[in-house]
Amino acid sequence: MLYARYAPYRLLFKEASGTSRGVLTYKDTYFIQLNDDTCPGRVGWGECALFRGLGSDDTHDYEAVLADACRRVSELPFDQFLSTLSDRTSMRFGFETAWQELHDWDDYPSRFIEGVQPITINGLVWMGDKSTMLQRIEDKLEAGFRCVKLKIGAIDFAAELDLLRTVRSRFSSDVIELRVDANGAFTPQEAPRKLAALARYDLHSIEQPIKAGQWEAMARLCAESPIPIALDEDLVACREVTTEVVEELLDTVRPQYIVLKPSLTGGLSGSDKWREAAVRRGIGWWITSALESNVGLAAIARYTASLPTTMPQGLGTGALYTNNIPSPLVQSGELLNYDPRGRWQYPIMTWR
User: Fold this and answer.
1) C-alpha angle with apex 99: 1 to 314, nearest 5 degrees?
2) Where is the domain boundary, 102, 125, 140?
3) Do the Cβ atoms of 63 and 71 come closer than 8 Å?
4) In this structure, are 85 and 118 located in the same domain?
5) Are residues 279 and 197 part of one domain?
6) Looking at residue 310, what is its pLDDT?
7) Domain contains 61
């Protein structure tokens, strides 16, 4: 018989982190534990990584639904139980990854956990004034990153162009790959002009230039943009990740890339649907964490390591918090690895 319980946890940022949606100082999340009579002595940890203001399952009754799911977990075969969470993507992610942990990740094998298969990641530079962002870029380069992602859209656009101009005057695209993420900050009317201006600086791609849900406008941008466009929030906005929804969005918009955030894009199985449909259409993809703790990040890393990709992934958010869960995850420059000699150090939590 399967048993589940959950505990709320508030992650505290080391410093306020700016995006076009606002400044973040903390992030609430929920941990779950699975125990199974058939796996004595083992505990599966998962993270229901709720993202307030972004996740499609951010509702007032979130915790009540999670508590009910924990009570119901043994009533159906596990796959059928997961189907009851089809519109609760972060919960699906938490239960799926706890199940995988309980069963030693048999469905997603890799050598990451052995410490011999590191994952190449991009360096993430949060929004700030020009001098602050430039210093952060220099810090990332000094640390050994060859791919840097910049959050744009919250400060003056001219200042952001000036920043990119400064970076490119010092570092060519052979030295540093630049990705930018607008988090939907542009309007459909101004986006073509801004994309043309950004294209002068040899960018790899831009994530979500306009707000989610404007499929026709985004399709026009993807067809005409001088910079490859990656869909992010448009995937997150899909409440349920069905084959029909996935194919309709990709066939309508035809982006150059999609960004998969497993805790926000239907869990592991939902992300598989997006990825497989994208590959069939010649659309590129990479995987990004969404401010999870090290519990969720380690699960996403294990999933990512099982997939065929050589692109830098967006898994560099593990050092953002003052009270993250100490773990065997080790980041050295642009490499994320797992130290098999390391140990998890879980704090005391209030389980419900």
Assistant:
1) 165
2) 102
3) no
4) no
5) yes
6) 84
7) yes
91, 242, 90: which is closest to 81 by C-alpha? 91
The stretches of the chain forming alpha helices (DSSP H) are: 62-72, 78-83, 89-102, 130-142, 157-170, 191-198, 215-224, 233-236, 243-253, 267-280, 294-305
Inform me whether the pLDDT recorded for 38 exceeds 90.
no
Domain count, the chain: 2
Residues 25, 123 within the same domain: no
In tens, the pLDDT along 70-124 reads 999 999 999 999 999 999 999 999 999 999 999 999 999 999 999 999 999 999 9
Residue 350 falls inside a structural domain:
no
Looking up residue 9, the CATH number of its domain turns out to be 3.30.390.10
Largest Cα–Cα separation, the chain: 62
Separation of alpha carbons 58 and 103, rounded Å = 29
The verdict on residue 345 lying in a domain is no
Which secondary-structure segment (H or E) carries 212?
none
State the average pLDDT over residues 145-169.
91
Backbone angles phi, psi at 17, to 5 degrees: -115, 125
Distance CA 124, CA 328 (A): 21
The helices-and-strands tally (H runs, E runs) of the chain is 11, 13
What amino acid is encoded at 203 in this protein? L
Catalytic amino acids? Answer: 151, 261
Can you tell me the distance from the alpha carbon of 264 to that of 90, in angstroms, rounded to the nearest whole number?
Answer: 6
**85 and 226 housed in the same domain:** no
**Which phi-psi region, left, alpha or beta, contains residue 309 (left: φ > 0; alpha: ψ -120 to 50)?**
beta
H/E element, 57: none
Look up residue 36 and give its amino acid.
D
Average pLDDT over the chain reads: 93
Instruction: Supply the pTM of this predicted model.
Output: 0.94
| Phi (first) and psi of residue 95, to 5 degrees | -70, -40
String of DSSP letters for 214-227: -HHHHHHHHHH-SS
Q: Which CATH number goes with the domain that contains 324?
A: 3.20.20.120
Instruction: Give the chain's length.
Output: 352
